[in-house]
Amino acid sequence: MAAVLLAVAIVVEVASTALLPRTNGFSNPLWSLVVLAGYAVSIGLLAAVVKSIPVSVTYAVWSGAGTALVAVVGLLFLGESLSRFQVGSLALIVVGVMGLNMAGSH
Hints:
By secondary structure, the protein is an all-alpha fold. The chain contains 4 helices and no strands. Helix 1 packs antiparallel against helix 2, helix 1 packs across helix 3 and helix 3 runs antiparallel to helix 4.
C-alpha cells in the first residue's frame, strides 16, 4: 500500500509542478491554490509513506521519479525540448532510483 501512496504522491507532485506556469508567478489566485493544494496533498502522502518505507528511499524515489516525469510532461505537453545529454542524465536518475530501491529492499 505504501508503494501505491508513493506513486500517487509522485503523480500529484508532477501535476502540480506542470501547472506552475499557470500561476503566473503566483499572481493567479485560482491556479496558485490548485498548485499549493497539490503540493500539500503530495507531502501529506509522503508523510504516510515514511511510516512504512525509510525516508531516504522514499525521498529518493519521489524526487528522482518526479524529476524524470516532469521532464517527460514538459516534453509532451509544455513544448519543452530535451537534448540527448538531458535524456542520458534522466536515465542515470532512473537507474540511481532503481539502485536505491534494490539496496533498500534487502
